[in-house]
Amino acid sequence: MRRLSKRRSLIGYTGAYMKFTCARIVLKLTLLFAPALLAAQTEAPFHSTEVHPDRTVTFQYKDAAATKVSVALNGVPNPIPMEKDAAGIWSVTTQPLVPEIYGYHFEADGDKRLDPANPRVTRNLVDISNMFTVPGETPQPWEVTNVPHGNLNIHLYTSATVLGLPNNQSEYIVYTPPGYDAKSKKPYPVLYLLHGWSDDASGWTAVGQANLIFDNLLAQGKIKPMVVVMPLGYGDMSFVREHGVWNQAATVDHNTSLFTQALLTEVLPQVESAYHVSQKREDRAIVGLSMGGLESLTAGLTHADKFAWVGGFSSAVHNLDFEKQLGSLDPKAANLRLLWIACGTEDHLIDPNRKLIDFLKSRNMPVTQIETPGMHTWMVWRDNLTHFAPLLFQGK
């Protein structure tokens, strides 16, 4: 009995000693790290982008080791140099910016860097950038407002045309307007809205905010209720690997041709089967941006029996052989209700678009030519859509 008591006493002593030792270790660690913990709790949040009331924007980027940092901002031709402070934080404040959604990234010693302090990003199949919004005094057409909202429906289907798809699965997204009625007496007109190179089917909604644009224009009574179809815009997925493909005219034509086939023989029939939309050419429109502009103009002008409303935004027509592909155009046979071609005046594609317009006019095709300030950016294309959509499906 005494041996057992001694053993219990020894265990109790050992346990108490271990608790005392652990407490001393915890105390030492607490004293050691307390300043850092206190600093972490009191340190002000780091704001990498701060939009001021006068619509100037301050950018900040942490990299004490960098020797040169700049910010590349949509709508600005060249990266804006930044200055480093004693804490290794680089910063710059811009001139006042127009209300818009801006994409940007940092460049440190020649390398592109994303903003780790801003989780809002725009992605595509080639690249990724950060985004921020400069608000206006009133809501912009592409902003969320307190109006009725339409629905977005994603459709996956097996394509027999598009090359390079995983398991041949292609995609299109359909916007239906608020109050869409599948049993209404009159079917809805439909707009086929095409994205640009590097984007996927979500480009016009994820970045272009097209669904919000339609919501707001409808609420203002500026457009007709319409169904909008946004398909994956490639005929061959290998076309999206690197930008050098645009120097290969045959490769461009190959992609455009296959996409047009997929649009007309796969997407269009499925949409007209699943949605209460008109099958009349007078109730179909097609428009796109950049690569999508090339596709919409090519498909629309060579299939005028399918589309009476045709447009292109900053269209990538620099490799298009006008005579070969559009030489047989007949304005009377085409009988278009609208041919609308827009481009930013600072866009590298402005000259090819002007040449296309001159060619179309030489064939007596009635063309609405639109030129606005701007580069090859979403800022121009959102504005284009805002002005193009109200023209659609109006009476003569």
What does this 3D model show about the protein?
This protein is α/β, with parallel strands linked by helices and 396 residues long. The chain folds into 2 domains: 49-134, Sandwich (Immunoglobulin-like), CATH 2.60.40.10; 151-391, Alpha/Beta hydrolase fold, catalytic domain (Rossmann fold). Helices cover 32% and strands 23% of the residues. The chain is built from 9 helices and 18 strands. It has helices at 2-42, 203-206, 210-219, 249-274, 291-302, 322-326, 331-334, 350-362, 378-388; strands at 49-51, 57-62, 69-73, 80-81, 83-84, 89-93, 100-108, 111-113, 121-123, 128-134, 151-158, 169-176, 190-194, 227-231, 284-288, 309-313, 338-344, 368-372. The strands form 3 sheets. It has an 8-stranded mixed sheet, with helices on both faces. The model is unreliable at 1-42 (pLDDT under 50).
The gyration radius over C-alpha positions equals: 29 Å
Oligomer: single chain
CATH topology of the largest domain: Rossmann fold
Shape descriptor: globular
Task: Set down the secondary structure blueprint.
Layout lengths: L1 H41 L6 E3 L5 E6 L6 E5 L6 E2 L1 E2 L4 E5 L6 E9 L2 E3 L7 E3 L4 E7 L16 E8 L10 E8 L13 E5 L8 H4 L3 H10 L7 E5 L17 H26 L9 E5 L2 H12 L6 E5 L8 H5 L4 H4 L3 E7 L5 H13 L5 E5 L5 H11 L8
